[in-house]
Amino acid sequence: MNDKDDKFELDQSAHALYNLLEGIDDTRRVDESGISQSSLIDLLNRQTKELDHYRMLLADAACLFAGILKSSFSAAPSREIDQKIQAFLNALKKIAKFPQFNRQIYCRLRGQQYTSNQSGSETYDYELSFNNIFLDSQMAQIIEEREKIQGKGLYLKLMDAFQSLSEMNVFNFSIDTGAGGAEDYRKLETTLRLLIKFYKNPAREGFVVLDEYGQSNINLTLLAAMNKVKPAALQKLVDKIKPLILGPTPDKGLALFTTVYDAISLSLDRREDLKKIPIEVNKTQLLMDNLHSDPKRAVVVVQISRLVLAKYGSSPRMASEVINSINSAGYINIRPEVMGTRLTRASDFLELAEKNDNGEDLQSEALRNIEEGLDHLPDEMYHHISVNGSAASTFNIEGQETTFLLHEKILDFLSFFIRRSSIKKKVQDIANKNVWFDDDDYAVIAKNFKISKEDAVDLISLLRDSFDFNGNFRRSFFEKNIQSFVRCGSKVFEFLWHYLKELPLRNDRVAFLNALQALVAQFEQPKVALDILLSDIFDPRSTKDVQFSDRNAFILATALLCPGKPLGRSHIELTPEDVLQVKDDLNLDTISIVPEFFEQNHEKIIQKFRLITELLLKSSARENFTENEMQPRFLLYLIREMVIFFSLTGGKSAHAIIRGVVLEFGDPFSAYYREMKNKENLRHSLQLLQIAARSLRRFADPQDMNLLAEIIGNEEAFVALYDEPDPLNHVQRVMEKIRKGD
User: Fold this and answer.
1) Measured between alpha carbons, how far is 171 from 313 in angstroms, rounded to an integer?
2) Dihedral in degrees, nearest 10, Cα atoms 391, 396, 401, 402
3) Cα-Cα-Cα-Cα dihedral of 502, 507, 511, 512, to 10°?
4) CA separation for the pair 644, 557 (Å, rounded)
5) Could you give the strand order of the β-sheet that contains 126-130, starting from the edge strand earlier in sequence?
6) What is the b/e burial string over 334-343, where b = at least 16 CB atoms within 10 angstroms of the residue's CB?
7) Between vectors from CA 460 to CA 455 and to CA 461, what angle results, nearest 5°?
């Protein structure tokens, strides 16, 4: 990293870069020798650098916000507070320059990961976000490693802010920058000064407004103060709405409002006397991830939140922990040693719900969310948990065993998932004729797939018979029984994919790939299958590694987009190139899930693509490989499949990545070609270039045509890459196809 890189500042060229990847910078960069470096890696690194730039701004804003609130507990000079407020507002203005900034910044306590090597550090596990950019303690450490100068001390600075928020019982906050005008920032400054006033004396009469549970409420107080409404007047409004929400005869029209503040806040757009506050703290709705379009379930979710607030309203920390424990999102990436505490809170809620008139509905909704959260945990999680009688045990980070008494229904869930994880190991080894399944195994499989026990027996029998006595996959048998597999429902695809995708032998992987293509052609829910494949490829753990199954996943994903192109009994390892001619026959309904997935997983896609490209560059510069090691040809074919899939789905990000591939492999003077050891890979690289160029044409961008013309003009330089004359005139044929666009 040079000095110029260390002084990175966002400018118009960086904005343009983001807007195309979303934005792409096609500037050729050269080293001191004048030889161009990897334009694709450079592109991906620039994208990451810009995202890190915004994350550091987000960290600055959060640290200043925590410091401003903390100053209310000290005798900090007013000048120092004024400086912090102005610095905070300046940080927000810089964040607001982010392309397509949605004006909302969030912070919430997750409490699911240790932030250090000490037990209890999960109490400082906060997550900051805006748009689809996230920052937590783990990401702060990654940025420190990437940005040696600008990111120095980022982790400790952020952890100090998170600890301050925890000590002040701030478990979430949101910031709305509005239209970004001077008046919007004046409102933000006023709100900050009112927050300081509130925290100096949260019980101050004549200033603080109480909520429906008689507790000092930050947001109600700020609402009154910001609008210059007498606290007593707003208190009367709260007291008037309270019985309409809490009863004894609640108003059905307010059934979807968790608190009085929510009801008032939503009505502000229709009121001239009150305006929304730009900063909200400890808002219950920010803790509720399980919001539903189903009106009945949505009402139950609100009732759950009200019950939690009624019980734990005086302890925001406990209320936050309980609500997280009955949200499915509360179990994402959770550490095993934190599971016990989280499930204990869930058990507390279930016992609390039992005492309510509609306790059965409340429990049912909570259990559904808990089960959904536990269902998506990796199998390795359950290797650290055991159930014995009415208790479950886990081991903390220091290796000490901790036992938790849990509600019987939660223990049933744990027992089921622990059992399921062990059965999945059996399925992975199903080719071994010594592996047997008993009645309990079939019962678990039946429950998992929501099928009958008899169908579970049939499913395992079909899977077992799909392998011969030598453990080789029998494609013909599998295909003859596709309808029987389909009858087991959408989960059967997930089951087959996750536990048979990495068969040990290459021939078996290819046979399995082709068999699955025949299966997806009959699949009634292609969007479900596509989501399974994309989530697997770009899983956070997968973005740190490349699997042989990644290429097959893209081949299957493309097949799901093109239902009108059956492959029959073909035995292929690559998607036919003529799929790039398909336009009208694409499954647009299936494709519709891709833009949202790309937006939400933008950085994971960048990380994965960078990883594959770096691995290709390194392997191409080597001569010898170990058995089963990924070689350049496989990685080139993997990028080929990614390019085809991206070209069919379309979009700015897809366009940018494909253009980056064309830039990389269309430059005969690049380090990639210069350091290539095996010239056989030159042919495969040019085949990739041909596919990428053809894919690029689908976007019909005039600038892309200029790039392709430049590549064609370098034909002689490509010919010169061969150690001897190109015996098949491969370069000329590739250039001719790029020229004609076919």
Assistant:
1) 13
2) -40
3) -10
4) 10
5) 133-135, 126-130, 104-109, 172-176, 279-281
6) bbbbbbbbbb
7) 90
Least confident of 10-24, 193-207, 333-347, 480-494: 10-24
Q: Tell me the HSE value of 625 on the side-chain side, using a 13 A CA sphere.
A: 17
Considering Cα of 665, then 668, then 670, then 672, what sign does the dihedral take?
positive
Q: What is the token pair recorded at 130?
A: 């805006």
Measure the CA–CA gap between 324 and 289, rounded to whole angstroms.
9
DSSP state of 111: -
- For 615-653, the three-class secondary structure string (H helix, E strand, C coil) is HHHHHHCCCCCCCCCCCHHHHHHHHHHHHHHHHHHCCHH
- Tens digit of each residue's pLDDT (9 = 90 or more) over 63-72: 999 999 998 8
Sign, Cα dihedral of 661, 666, 668, 673: positive
> In a 3-state reduction of DSSP, which class is residue 694?
helix
Cis peptide before 248 (omega within 30 of 0): yes
Whole-angstrom CA distances from 187 to 24, 170, 270, 362 are 37, 21, 20, 39
Give the contacts of 357 (CB within 8 A, at least 6 positions apart).
none
Which amino acid is present at 449? F
pTM exceeding the 0.90 threshold for the entire prediction: no
Torsion sign over Cα 519, 525, 531, 534? positive
User: In the prediction, which pLDDT does 599 show?
Assistant: 83
Longest CA span, the chain: 91
Pairing of strands 126-130, 104-109: antiparallel
- Could you tell me if 342 and 334 are in contact, meaning their C-beta atoms sit under 8 angstroms apart? yes
With b meaning 16 or more CB within 10 Å and e meaning fewer, what string describes 610-640? bbbbebbbebbeeeeeeeeebebbbbbbbbb
Residue 76 backbone class (left: φ over 0; alpha: ψ -120 to 50; beta: rest)? beta
Alpha carbon distance 260, 246 (integer Å)? 9
Provide the pLDDT for residue 492.
Answer: 81
pLDDT digits (tens, 9 = 90+) for 44-85: 888 889 999 999 999 999 999 999 999 888 777 788 999 999
User: What span, in angstroms and rounded, lies between the C-alpha atoms of 718 and 711?
Assistant: 9
For 436, the token pair is 């047997």
Report in angstroms the alpha-carbon separations of 442 from 412, 419, 424, 456, 483: 17, 11, 12, 6, 20
